[in-house]
């Protein structure tokens, strides 16, 4: 099991978080936080899109809002 968890550690440290090492050596606060702002903008855009889609389906009354949605209830 130790090798399994060391493999997960290796994947994240040497794989997924490797681009952040590049930003650490730049020593620029603005460049390092640009990545976080990009993720924030993508997440906010996806959230707004999803809420608009939910509103569209809610306005069309396509959802079954009956109290007993399953036969066993």
Strand and helix map with partners:
Layout: H1 2-16, H2 18-26, H3 29-59
What does it look like?
The chain has 73 residues and is mostly helical. The chain has one domain. The protein has 3 helices and no strands. It has helices spanning 2-16, 18-26, 29-59.
Structural class: mainly alpha
Report the end-to-end length measured between terminal Cα atoms. 44 Å
- Unreliable runs: none
Task: Write the element-wise H/E pattern from the N-terminal end onward.
Answer: HHH
| Total beta strand runs | 0
Keywords:
3 helices; 75% helix; mainly alpha; 73 residues; flat
What's this, in brief?
The protein contains three helices and no strands. It is mainly alpha-helical and 73 residues long.
